[in-house]
Write a structure and sequence with these properties.
Blueprint lengths: L3 E8 L3 E12 H8 L18 E6 L24 E6 L4 E6 L5 H17 L27 H14 L6 E7 L3 E11 L7 E10 L2 H6 L1 H41 L8 H5 L9 H4 L5 H19 L11 H11 L11 H4 L3 H16 L7 H10 L3 E5 L3 H12 L9 E3 L11 E4 L12 E8 L5 H14 L12 H29 L1 E7 L12 H10 L6 H26 L7 H7 L7 H7 L5 H18 L1
Helix pairs in contact: 5-8, 11-13, 11-15, 11-17, 12-16, 14-15, 16-17, 17-19
Organism: Ascaris suum (Pig roundworm)
Pfam family, one: Folliculin
Keywords: Cell projection, Cytoplasm, Cytoskeleton, GTPase activation, Lysosome, Membrane, Nucleus
Length: 622
């Protein structure tokens, strides 16, 4: 259910009744319920888009809903279960108008909204303004009254007896019964009680935002339809009243010449007809056909103007940095981590990190190897991976890079040593010698065994099961094109899972044969908080891969936000105590090296924006 429009009437014989309902349905559903035997009428056409529409008068709508309510001509529109259908060939949507909705759930929602709009909900008094919609107006003929005095008297009498507190626009509803935009109004009828009939036009939708976002359009469209109905009803009313007024004046002028009570019954008697249809009080036998056209216009225009799209939100610093790297052609200033590397699935990197973390944690040579490597990684020190397999060594570095902002990652596989100021993640062959002036470098030598343990094989297979997409749960009403796109996506995901399985098998048979690091990295008391956090997450066997991915990403963004704040305050002209700032962001002096290094992960656009803002503020104060 998208949006449903309905015309409701407070019948003097039966109470609140739904006179006409217009709803949209997919063309496939319509062909199933109507079939080819339905007669076609070209009386309902959009002249400006006649080639895009097919209009029919349908006598075989869905039999899901049966109208068992008592009705008269005043609260009826289409008899014998017939209706009108306009098909939008471009969008594949049918707009169906019938006396009751063709769906049981929609029918109950419309009845509930009708009852509330005509009995419970009260609108504050406000004059109806002239419509401003561009909808094509109906040409009307003005019929002057023969006695202006009598007409003015009747107009003032009607205005005094109309309860304007119940007429107007109101929005009500809830999540269970949908949200309704109701516009109540009155039409003049010379043979109704009080010379007026009470109607309402309602728009129903389960999405409150859809109604509120299109409030102006709905109100303007409803006002236009109501204004045209009132014009037609007024013309008929004045015509009938003029005939009745002339007859009453003639009888009243002669009554003084007759004996008392001789013609009182005939003079005061008013012929009431509470069952007159809307077609009769507007003198338009095709009024419901016209309403079908107008309601279809409103529903179709709303669907065309308002399209839903998924917004990605404010770009993160990693997204901005990656965009800058893609635009940069300077290899010396940029990272050798290409966009293809970052396109590797994050789950694959997470599983690789878990393999590496367990291998280092179980390393007998250095019990604190994992903590030392993480500390070197997050503080900007150089991590060197020695491996003769260049492809696998690069995969190890890419896994390490997931723990850092993109702007802090500079990696490569080289046959000769590169200093830390150029690459903080470096891979090289096992035979390469490290120069003496290399500084503090963490070196991890990795080899790939020929065989793999059965436990590791089971873990790889479980990951592939988790990596593979679940079977689609799409309802059968989806279009074939969407199903085809799902099949293509599933095929591509299957190919990706096979490639990931091969990569993870390499990680399962990798083994660290040597690990060396500066002695300062093995001091546990001075470790930054993020090192402890990363170690705890990577060694937690109860966390699934997808959960671990989300938690690591959240942790990375949290520390990058702290680095943003430190960068802003450190660039101020006035002296600021950074110790107090660290206390505010819940960090200690041990975390200061991490925050300084992670400022390199901020985008150039953001840094320039901060500097421009500070300079502009300084100029204002000067």
């Amino acid at each position: 259910m998208q949006t449903v429009m309905a015309l409701c009437h407070f019948c003097e014989n039966h109470g609140p009744r739904v006179v006409m309902t217009t709803q949209s349905m997919r063309d496939s559903t319509q062909t199933e319920c109507c079939g080819p035997a339905c007669p076609i009428s070209n009386s309902v056409m959009f002249p400006e888009e006649g080639n895009s529409y097919r209009d029919r008068h349908v006598d075989c709508l869905m039999n899901e809903v049966r109208d068992d309510e008592g009705r008269c001509m005043a609260c009826s529109s289409f008899c014998d279960g017939s209706g009108l259908v306009t098909t939008d060939l471009d969008a594949g949507i049918n707009y169906i108008s019938s006396q009751v909705a063709v769906n049981e759930r929609v029918c109950q929602l419309v009845k509930h909204a009708c009852l509330r709009s005509l009995s419970c909900e009260v609108y504050a008094s406000m004059p109806l303004q002239a419509p401003t919609s561009t909808m094509k107006s109906t040409k009307s003929i003005s019929v002057p009254t023969p006695n202006a005095r009598m007409g003015n008297f009747e107009d003032s009498w009607l205005e005094a007896n109309v309860d304007e507190g119940s007429d107007g626009i109101i929005l009500f509803g809830d999540d269970d019964h949908g949200y309704t935009l109701s516009h109540t109004f009155r039409l003049r009828d010379a043979k109704a009680r009080g010379f007026q009939r009470w109607f309402s036009l309602i728009v129903i939708c389960m999405d409150k935002l859809l109604i509120t976002n299109n409030y102006e359009f709905f109100v303007s469209s409803l006002s236009t339809i109501i204004h045209q109905l009132q014009e037609q009803a007024n013309n008929v009313f004045f015509m009938e009243q003029s005939e009745l007024a002339n007859e009453c004046l003639k009888q009243a002028s002669r009554a003084s010449l007759l004996p008392a009570h001789f013609m009182r019954n005939r003079v005061t008697k008013l012929e009431l007809d509470t069952s007159r249809s809307l077609a009769l009080i507007t003198a338009n036998p095709n009024i419901f056909t016209k309403l079908h056209k107008q309601m279809t216009y409103v529903l179709r225009t709303q669907a065309r103007l308002c399209t839903e799209s998924v917004l990605e939100g404010v770009p993160t610093q990693d997204a901005l940095v990656q965009l800058e790297l893609e635009r940069s052609f300077d290899e010396e200033m940029g990272s050798e981590l290409s966009a293809t590397d970052w396109g590797i699935d994050a789950l694959q990197q997470i599983i690789a990190l878990q393999f590496i973390a367990r291998r280092l944690y179980q390393l007998e040579q250095q019990p604190l190897a994992l903590e030392a490597l993480l500390r070197q990684l997050v503080t900007g020190g150089q991590v060197l991976v020695k491996c003769d397999d260049s492809s696998f060594a690069r995969q190890v570095l890419i896994a390490f890079a997931y723990l850092l902002p993109i702007g802090c990652v500079h990696l490569t596989y080289s046959q000769r040593y590169e200093h830390v100021f150029k690459y903080n993640l470096l891979a090289c062959p096992m035979s390469m010698q490290i120069p003496a002036d290399a500084g503090d470098v963490v070196i991890a030598s990795v080899v790939l065994d020929e065989e793999i343990d059965s436990a590791e094989t089971l873990q790889c297979s479980s990951f592939c099961d988790e990596f593979s997409p679940p079977p689609p749960h799409s309802p059968p009403s989806f279009l074939d094109s969407s199903c085809h796109s799902d099949e293509v996506a599933n095929a591509s995901m299957d190919a990706g899972s096979q490639a990931s399985s091969l990569v993870l098998q390499d990680f399962a048979r990798c083994r660290f044969v040597r690990f060396s690091a500066p002695s300062s990295l093995f001091v546990s008391d001075s470790a930054p908080a993020i090192v402890t956090r990363y170690k705890q997450l990577l060694l937690d066997n109860e966390l699934g891969s997808r959960v671990l991915e989300a938690v690591i990403k959240n942790t990375r963004e949290q520390w990058l936000s702290r680095a943003k704040l430190i960068y802003q305050l450190s660039r101020q002209k006035e002296g600021i105590d950074l110790k107090k700032v660290l206390h505010v962001v819940k960090c200690t002096q041990n975390d200061a090296p991490v925050l300084r290094f992670w400022q390199a992960g901020l985008s150039k656009v953001y840094k320039q924006h901060v500097l421009n803002t500070i300079n502009s503020c300084q100029q204002v104060y000067l």
